[in-house]
């Protein structure tokens, strides 16, 4: 039996699958989201209960909705046609911040743990605050619904107890005619009401048993989820250690990369040196070929060296003869110079003698002139 349409709708949404359930939930709510943000969605690995499994390849929209028909709050996230999160918030749920940008909560009905990775710590704080607000609102809604159920149950019990007593009082105080006139319709009405109350009590008892079973299931799920959270916390510590190890390994690899880059630069320098050496070797080989060519020429020239030697000896002999002739000529030149000096000396002596002779001659000529004049005078006188 479906009460107020809630059970039938839930069963129908479960038959439709998670996509239909979430889409139907949003369609039934007909409300704008209370709060919306974007985050990377993860779910705990159901087999290991330790590792996180990404539910989306990129950041998706995560929203809080209020379900008016069920008087409940939900967190819903859809990636295209795939429903990632369809979690009904209950008062016993807890949102835990495991890092500056990551938080998680356990959903006992879905029997899983959801994780959200945000782009900033501020977004995580806003989501956690909104989770706490919605959690308190869900608690108030649950308390109100519980009060309504208890009130209706008490009212039904009181009405069921009071109706027979009033009937007895009327039957005692009434006359036989009144009994005859009123007992038929009143009995029918009371029986119908009693039947309705019995059905309501039966349904209430069945609902209580169902709620007790569901409560026990929730407790067991909470125990499992608490264990999963503890294991998750332990795995977080392990991940932190692994992260530290990976960071150290990353630093070591970076240092290794720096060393390899330095080695690569050294190798490049060595390559440049090798290129220069190859160029130098090519130049030396070219010079060596030139020297070999010169050596061949010299070898060819060495073949005519004996002839050149004989010619050189002949030239040397001629040179020696020329030197001897030159020596003789030099001796002759020296003797000629001596003769010239002597002739110059004799010439100077002759000049002196000639000068003295000319002076004597001039004196003699003057004497002759005087003598001639004297003769002339003598001739004139005579």
From TrEMBL:
One of its GO terms (molecular function) is G protein-coupled glutamate receptor binding. Residues 26-138 form the WH1 domain. The keyword Methyltransferase does not apply. Keywords: Cell membrane, Cell projection, Coiled coil, Cytoplasm, Hearing, Membrane, Synapse. Pfam families: WH1. InterPro entries: Homer, Homer_EVH1, PH-like_dom_sf, WH1/EVH1_dom. Residues 1-22, 142-191 are annotated as: Disordered. Residues 201-346 form a coiled coil. It is found in: Cell membrane; Cell projection, Stereocilium; Cytoplasm; Postsynaptic density. Its main location: membrane. GO terms for cellular component: cytoplasm; plasma membrane; postsynaptic density; stereocilium. Residues 151-174 have a biased composition (Polar residues). SUPFAM superfamilies: PH domain-like, Tropomyosin. GO terms for biological process: G protein-coupled glutamate receptor signaling pathway; sensory perception of sound. Belongs to the Homer family. This is Homer protein homolog 2.
């Amino acid at each position: 039996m479906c009460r107020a349409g809630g059970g039938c709708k839930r069963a129908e949404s479960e038959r439709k699958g998670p996509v239909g359930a979430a889409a139907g939930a949003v369609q039934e709510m007909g409300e704008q989201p209370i709060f919306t943000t974007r985050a990377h969605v993860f779910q705990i690995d159901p087999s290991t209960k330790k590792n996180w499994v990404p539910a989306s390849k990129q950041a998706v929209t995560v929203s809080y909705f209020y379900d008016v028909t069920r008087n409940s709050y939900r967190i819903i996230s859809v990636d295209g046609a795939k429903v990632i999160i369809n979690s009904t918030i209950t008062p016993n749920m807890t949102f835990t911040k495991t890092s500056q940008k990551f938080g998680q909560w356990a959903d006992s009905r879905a029997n899983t743990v959801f994780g959200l990775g945000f782009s900033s710590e501020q977004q995580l704080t806003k989501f956690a605050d909104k989770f706490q607000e919605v959690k308190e609102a869900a608690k108030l809604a649950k308390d109100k619904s519980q009060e309504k159920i208890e009130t209706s149950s008490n009212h039904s019990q009181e009405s069921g107890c009071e109706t027979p007593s009033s009937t007895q009082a009327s039957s005692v105080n009434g006359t036989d005619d009144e009994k005859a006139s009123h007992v038929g319709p009143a009995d029918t009405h009371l029986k119908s009401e009693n039947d309705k109350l019995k059905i309501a009590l039966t349904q209430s008892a069945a609902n209580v048993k169902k709620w007790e079973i569901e409560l026990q299931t929730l407790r067991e799920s909470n125990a499992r989820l608490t264990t999963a959270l503890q294991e998750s916390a332990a795995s977080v510590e392990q991940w932190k250690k692994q992260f530290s190890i990976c960071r150290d390994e990353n630093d070591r690899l970076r240092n290794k990369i720096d060393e390899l880059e330095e080695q690569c630069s050294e190798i490049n320098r060595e390559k440049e040196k090798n290129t220069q050496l190859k160029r130098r070797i090519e130049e030396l080989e070219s010079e060596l070929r030139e020297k070999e060519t010169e050596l061949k020429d010299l070898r060819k020239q060495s073949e005519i060296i004996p002839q050149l030697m004989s010619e050189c000896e002949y030239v040397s002999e001629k040179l020696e003869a020329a030197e001897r002739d030159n020596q003789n000529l030099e001796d002759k030149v020296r003797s000629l110079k001596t003769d010239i000096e002597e002739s110059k000396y004799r010439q100077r002596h002759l000049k002196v003698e000639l000068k003295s002779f000319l002076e004597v001659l001039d004196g003699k000529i003057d004497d002759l002139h005087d003598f001639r004049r004297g003769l002339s005078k003598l001739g004139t006188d005579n």
